């Protein structure tokens, strides 16, 4: 009997039996599922509210966890100190440092903040007068109307934000009490979460790995380890660099006699948590204050800024951060802009580590797709001279 293979249709050959078409169909199904979720997003509204409630204390506890966990592991492995004992000792030291910082820094900081709040209107009015003077010069006369319109829009936007958002937040006692209560709850809840994260952190990782299929557990463990190392390195590195930025700016401002040196140093350290642009943002109030204090002070502030950027860029950041995140500066700026636009200030702070986690997951998923799809396998090149070489070798052997 003549056994011939059944003739396949074009649809079967180009769609059902084509790996690329199947991949496109899978992508289409994923997009349809996402579209379906957007149509029933009201179902997930309680989940979003729940995440908003628990996210702040968990984030605070996670930051402290990545700072304290290496010390706990070191004490456990090096000196065989029980994990619970080292955790309690670290908690006592942390409370002591907080009390010491409050007793030393808060009075001086409060005094300088009050002075800055009282004196800021004077600096702001002087800046406005300077901008008006610049716009009235003959060389800027052709664009004077545009400058005036832009200045008016900026001032109107700031005034609207201050009146609607900032003032309305504390327009009544109820909202103020609610805000203070939320902060207190987050601060009180975070230590409890931190304690159990330090105590049962490894157990949590083991439980997550058990949720994965047995076949994928080694890959899951490797991925979780890589994510943990990436986040740990980023958080410890950013906080360390921010601390030294605070020290350098405060010391430099004190040396040159800049007003509100401590407050401006704290602002610089906090803003440095935003990569690349944080220090420049922190320089704005310092430059304004120095410009209307004395011309020489402005030059001194710029010198302090140049020295700080040189030390940070050449010494501190390479030693502390290294290049383990492997992020191009353009990628970092795009991530900051996107995360800030989507999630506000919290997105700016958490955008980089979030991107690092997504990059690890997507990279591993892509490697898995490459391995199972067969679309990226390269055939080994066959050398045309191989048969000739084999023939010559066989002739030599026969002789």
UniProtKB/TrEMBL annotation:
InterPro entries associated with the record: AI-2E-like
Compartment(s): Cell membrane
Keyword Cell membrane part of the UniProt annotation: yes
Transmembrane intervals: 20-38, 50-72, 84-106, 173-198, 239-256, 262-281, 288-307, 327-358
Main location: membrane
UniProt keyword Flavoprotein present: no
UniProt keyword annotations, A-Z: Cell membrane, Membrane, Transmembrane, Transmembrane helix, Transport
Domain of life: Bacteria
Topology in the lipid bilayer: Multi-pass membrane protein
Family per record: Belongs to the autoinducer-2 exporter (AI-2E) (TC 2.A.86) family.
Name of the protein this chain belongs to: AI-2E family transporter
């Amino acid at each position: 009997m003549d056994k011939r293979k059944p003739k396949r249709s074009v649809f079967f050959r180009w769609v059902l039996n084509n790996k690329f078409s199947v991949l496109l169909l899978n992508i289409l199904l994923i997009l349809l599922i996402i579209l379906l979720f957007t149509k029933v997003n009201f179902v997930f509204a309680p989940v979003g509210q729940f995440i908003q409630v628990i996210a702040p204390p968990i984030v605070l506890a996670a930051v402290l966890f990545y700072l304290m966990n290496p010390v706990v592991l070191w004490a456990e492995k090096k000196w065989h100190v029980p994990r619970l004992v080292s955790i309690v000792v670290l908690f006592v030291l942390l409370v002591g440092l907080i009390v010491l910082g409050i007793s030393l820094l808060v009075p001086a900081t409060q005094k300088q903040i009050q002075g800055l709040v009282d004196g800021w209107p004077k600096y702001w009015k002087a800046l406005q007068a300077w901008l008006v003077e610049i716009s009235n010069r003959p060389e800027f006369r052709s664009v004077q109307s545009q400058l005036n319109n832009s200045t008016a829009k900026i001032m109107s936007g700031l005034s609207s934000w201050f009146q609607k958002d900032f003032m309305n937040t504390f327009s009544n006692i109820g909202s103020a009490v609610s805000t203070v209560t939320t902060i207190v709850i987050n601060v009180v809840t975070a230590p409890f979460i931190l304690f159990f994260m330090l105590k049962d952190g490894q157990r949590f990782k083991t439980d997550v790995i058990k949720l994965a299929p047995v076949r994928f557990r080694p890959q899951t463990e490797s991925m979780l380890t890589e994510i943990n190392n990436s986040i740990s390195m980023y958080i410890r590195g950013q906080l360390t660099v921010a601390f030294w930025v605070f020290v350098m700016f405060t010391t430099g401002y004190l040396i040159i006699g800049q007003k509100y040196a401590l407050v401006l140093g704290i602002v610089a350290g906090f803003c440095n948590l935003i990569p690349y642009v944080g220090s420049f943002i922190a320089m704005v109030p310092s430059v304004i204050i120095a410009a209307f204090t004395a011309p020489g002070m402005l030059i001194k502030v710029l010198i302090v800024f140049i020295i700080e950027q040189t030390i940070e860029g050449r010494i501190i950041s390479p030693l502390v951060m290294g290049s383990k995140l492997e992020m191009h500066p353009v990628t970092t700026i795009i991530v900051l802009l996107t995360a800030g636009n989507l999630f506000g200030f919290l997105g700016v702070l958490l955008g980089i580590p979030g991107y690092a986690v997504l990059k690890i997951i997507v990279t591993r998923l892509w490697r898995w797709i490459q391995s199972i799809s067969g679309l990226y396998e390269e055939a080994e090149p066959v050398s045309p001279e191989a048969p000739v070489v084999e023939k010559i070798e066989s002739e030599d052997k026969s002789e």
